[in-house]
Specification:
With about 450 residues, the chain is an alpha+beta fold. It has 2 domains: about 150 residues, no CATH class; about 270 residues, Anthranilate synthase, CATH 3.60.120. Strands 2, 3, 4, 6, 9, 10, 11, 12, 13, 14, 20, 23 and 24 form a 13-stranded mixed beta sheet that branches. Strands 1, 5, 7, 8, 15, 16, 17, 18, 19, 21 and 22 form an 11-stranded mixed beta sheet that branches. Strand 18 and strand 19 form a beta hairpin. The chain starts with a strand and ends with a helix. The structure holds the ligand C=C(O[C@@H]1C=C(C(=O)O)C=C[C@H]1O)C(=O)O. It catalyses: chorismate = isochorismate.
Length: about 450
């Protein structure tokens, strides 16, 4: 495997990589996830489902230039790649970024660099009822051999019997409820003083489990409950564990020059009855505080897109209902003024004030000095890029990092002038639910 670090653009362009693919509608995408060793990737959106494993090459980068470094190295790597195949089966780089640069060693996030992308050895893609097997290798012979070997290995594999959630034996919250109140009170003072307009403060919940988590099983259950979310899992290997989740939030999707993104901010719970649920939705749509919180996100995304877009259009604000919460959502579309790489947009947009705040630099400093845990890849961009520079990235919320018999869950809430610490605490607990339900 070729591991490219930092500025290995030259090394990437000297590689010779061959991709081969074949349509095989009888393949079970799940089977690969169950037989492959790390690194493994799962990427499931409303339109397609991908499971990938192994590494023909990987890229990692640290520091504030991580977006640019990955973009340049990835472009060189794709230039050295031959063989394409039909569009759904095309080789892609899958990976993600840390929320802050400088996510450290010696934390739970050991093994998750500030940026890590993998060109998998084997990939199974399911889209529009068809399935493809794609392999990559250093030589055409090896690629051909690998294609046959994986076809044999995956054909006829039956779906394994699913296990239930492992069960939680102990849990530890950061911060405690009194500390959270203090943190929110301090943020509100900064907002009143005019230093901040919004900051998204998060919590972490570490749980000890009665047994190891089966990520394939947990993802299958998340598929059923969150079919219109991005379900993802990244296991870079070497004991790093698996970062996985089901996020409703698209950071950006780029196809040719068409950008699809949106604002998701402002939250309330789900009702016990239909009437209560509608009442809560109406209250959210009318809430001055939540609309203000949401407006800031819409404005910031539009401003970030303006310099690169010929046209930005904002759709209608509506309610996005998920199993445990409902949010305000506004779709945003843009037509770019020139060809651009999706990572340019990722860099421009991350973090949106849906997970960071405003002004961005003050909000990021507040997050760093307030939160007593490392966000790692939580609330950061995860997704894929292809040879054309297109790609899709989601915001990795509703997520957890699992390793052996432990898991750490993350969730946050947007703090604006009218926020109440106890309501924000309750909102965070609702946002833990999707992942907690997979564990307890
Ligand atoms: C930060 C999270 O969610 C974000 C914050 C929201 C809010 O404050 O209302 C809503 C959706 C997400 O953009 C999270 O789930 O951890």
């Amino acid at each position: 495997m070729e591991t490219l670090r930092g500025d290995d653009v030259g090394a990437a362009s000297e590689l010779a990589i061959v991709a081969r693919s074949r349509r095989l509608d009888s393949l079970s995408p799940d089977a690969l996830q169950r037989v492959a060793d790390a690194p493994t990737v799962v990427w499931r959106g409303p339109e397609e489902s991908i499971v990938a494993a192994g590494a023909t090459a990987s890229i990692s980068a640290d520091g504030p230039d991580r977006f640019e470094t990955v973009r340049e190295t990835a472009t060189a790597l794709f230039e050295s790649l031959q063989g394409d195949g039909p569009r759904p089966a095309r080789p892609r780089l899958f990976g993600g970024f840390a929320f802050h640069d400088g996510t450290g060693t010696g934390t739970d996030w050991d093994g998750f660099p500030d940026a890590w992308f993998v060109l998998p050895r084997v990939q199974v893609t399911a889209r529009d009822g068809a399935r493809w097997l794609t392999v990559t290798a250093d030589t055409p012979d090896l690629a051909a051999e690998r294609l046959e070997a994986w076809q044999d290995r995956l054909t006829g594999a039956t779906d394994a019997e699913r296990s239930g959630p492992p069960g939680i034996v102990d849990e530890h919250r950061t911060p405690s409820r009194p500390d959270w109140r203090e943190q929110i009170t301090a943020a509100l003072a900064d907002i009143r003083a005019g230093r901040l307009r919004k900051v998204v403060l998060a919590q972490s919940l570490s749980v000890d489990l009665a047994g190891p988590v089966s990520v394939p099983d947990a993802l299958s259950r998340l598929d059923e409950t969150y079919p219109d979310c991005y379900r993802f899992a990244f296991a870079p290997g070497d004991g790093a564990g698996t970062f996985f989740g089901a996020t409703p939030e698209t950071l950006v999707s780029l196809t040719d020059r068409t950008v699809r993104t949106g604002a998701l901010a402002g939250s309330t719970g789900r009702g016990e009855t239909r009437a209560e649920d509608e009442w809560l939705a109406d209250e959210l749509l009318d809430s001055e505080k939540d609309n203000h919180e949401h407006d800031l996100v819409v404005e910031a995304i539009r401003e970030q897109l303006d310099p690169v877009a010929a046209r930005v259009t904002t759709g209608e604000r509506s309610i996005r209902k998920l199993a445990t919460v409902q949010h305000l959502e506004t779709p945003i579309r843009a037509a770019l003024d020139a060809d651009r790489h999706v990572l340019e947009l990722v860099e421009a947009l991350h973090p949106t004030p849906a997970v960071g705040g405003l002004p961005p630099d003050v909000a990021l400093k507040t997050i760093k000095s307030t939160e007593a845990f490392d966000r790692g890849w939580y609330a950061a961009p995860v997704g894929w890029i292809d040879a054309a520079g297109d790609g899709t990235f989601a915001v990795a919320i509703r997520s957890a990092l699992a390793r052996e018999r432990t898991a750490t869950l993350f969730a946050g809430a947007g703090i604006v002038a009218d926020s109440d610490p106890d309501r924000e605490w309750d909102e965070v607990q609702l946002k833990y639910r999707p992942m907690l339900d997979e564990l307890e």
